[in-house]
Amino acid sequence: MWRVILILVSLAPVLAQASEHPLELHQRLSSTPGENVVALTLDACGGAFDAGLVRFLVEHRIPATVFATRKWLERNPEGTAILKQHADLFDIEDHGANHVPAVIGAGRRVYGIAGNPDVEHLREEVSQGAEAIEEATGSKPRWYRGATAFYDPQAIDDIEAMGYRIAGFSLNADAGATLKKAEIVARIRAARNGDILIAHMNRPRSDTAEGLAEGLTELQAKGFRFVLLRDETVVSTGGRASRSPAV
């Protein structure tokens, strides 16, 4: 009997983690009435460098907070160099070392991507990603966005305890670079003052670049101003629990 109790007690933290539903963090800018201000954030998970998208942003002077993984930085040194050449427009922040979702527990996945077996692996994912950012840019990242943008409550606590702010969003512009151009434009067209947009810059063969170019041009024509997260006050609007992408 005592042996069974001891086993259950030792497994309690693991079982608690596994029973948690991951959260998708929703945030907005603390905007000023009468202004139209939005923040564009771009994830560079793995894969390639969307040179067309970055060229458009440079030509139109649209800043973006880039969340890059160590894996992406290693694969795309030329793309990293271009971002660094325009440091006034692009702030490179931490997206982890290997694009591992911030969920904890053996066998847990989000959108089919395996999470961290334990807290120690989560911390390594965050810290090793940060080290790669600092090595590439010379600056320590202050923001973290986990792969898939879903988080266990415990993971949120651990990441914040490491000194990072977690970057959420309020408008998903390209659904992981899976949407067609018309849908991307429609989503961006619906942007409001204070929105934080999430899109991707690692899939140049997707419709993301063309969709963002048209949608962001429309926002500029409406008088929207684009900002970096590091320059703004970001407020949480809550978290939405995952019901289907994670197990």
What does this structure look like?
The chain has 8 helices and 14 strands. The chain has 247 residues and is α/β, with parallel strands linked by helices. The chain has a single domain (16-235), classed as TIM Barrel (Alpha-Beta Barrel). Strands 2, 3, 4, 11, 12 and 13 form a 6-stranded parallel beta sheet that branches. A 4-stranded mixed beta sheet has the order 5-9-1-14. Helix 2 packs parallel to helix 8 (208-221) and helix 7 runs parallel beside helix 8 (208-221).
**What is the H level of CATH, i.e. the homologous superfamily?**
Glycoside hydrolase/deacetylase
Helix content: 25-40%
H and E order: HEEHEHHEEEEHEEHEEHEHEE
What is the straight-line distance between the termini?
31 Å
**Corresponding CATH architecture:** Alpha-Beta Barrel
Over all CA atoms, what is the radius of gyration? 19 Å
Classified by CATH, the class is Alpha Beta
CATH topology category name: TIM Barrel
- From the spread of the alpha carbons, the general shape counts as globular
**What is the overall pLDDT average?**
91
Largest sheet: number of strands, sense, barrel closure: 6 strands, parallel
Question: What is the count of structural domains?
Answer: 1
**Structure class:** alpha/beta
Share in β-strands? 15-25%
Counting DSSP H or I runs of 4 or more residues, the number of helices is 8
Low-confidence stretches: 1-19
Count of DSSP strands: 14
